[in-house]
Write a structure and sequence with these properties.
- This protein is 73% helix and 0% strand.
- The protein is mostly helical and 114 residues long.
Length: 114
């Protein structure tokens, strides 16, 4: 019984050695095939881009937290939109309001003083 187990262990180790040898051969051939294929691809690729160094990443306002900067930016955009809306409303009012009173020189002078 012990001879059988010893024989079986020896057979298993022989099989493992043979399998390991075949696996190493397969991995080596696969590696060579990939290297050859990669070499062929490199030979056909002639484009070589000229890259420049990326500019350093700096904050537009150093020392100001992002949250504060974003809130300030949103507020300025909102006020700009409000001014543009008021301007359009004023233009529309001027276009549609056709009544122009005729006033004398004294009234005109008093109007400009205010």
């Amino acid at each position: 019984n012990s001879q059988y187990q010893a024989s079986r262990a020896q057979s298993a180790s022989s099989i493992e050695r043979l399998a390991k040898s075949r696996k190493e051969d397969w991995e080596r051939r696969e590696r060579l095939r990939m290297e050859t294929e990669e070499r062929k691809v490199r030979q056909h690729c002639t484009f070589k881009p000229q890259l420049t160094a990326a500019p350093p990443k700096t904050s537009p306002t150093p020392g100001v937290p992002v949250e504060v900067r974003l809130i300030n930016e949103a507020n300025s955009k909102q006020s700009l939109r409000q001014r543009a809306k008021r301007h359009l409303e004023e233009q529309e009012f001027q276009r549609t309001c056709t009544f122009r009173p005729k006033i004398n020189a004294t009234s005109r002078y008093l109007d400009t003083e205010q």
